[in-house]
């Protein structure tokens, strides 16, 4: 298996991210604007979503890119939770900690790289990055063991996060948990 390298997305890596996402803009044209806009991203022209992600890349807020053999094979958004306005609105009943956590809410892995450890490499890199800066990293994966768990796994799956040292901090729904690298004061 080829080694996976992880890099932060910036303006210089935009072309690689655009190549990975393809003409469709990842799975459905969201260009990872869902956690910022909610379902409203569907009502916008895909070019607007693409433009917004490109702007986020220019401000170093677009996330991480995974490479194998020099080509982009995976991506994860890594951004301050405070910027994910739809997350707080959609799960307003959940009491998020008031800390300055960064979120790892979304992944896109090329079909050719699925099952090769790309998601885990992205999770590991984000956790190590946060620990080095004393910044908690938070995510909202699917608990695949929950009855009726959604098959929409763009937020990642719980076992991958637990394997990388995240701990469960609560639940947003029956099948979606909150995990963190920070201290857990509630459960």
TrEMBL record:
InterPro entries with a match to the protein in the record: Acyl_CoA_acyltransferase, GNAT_dom
Membrane spanning residue stretches: none
Domain N-acetyltransferase: 4-187
Entries under Gene3D superfamilies matching the protein: 3.40.630.30
PROSITE patterns hit by this protein: GNAT
Pfam families reported in the protein's UniProt record: Acetyltransf_1
Entry protein name: N-acetyltransferase domain-containing protein
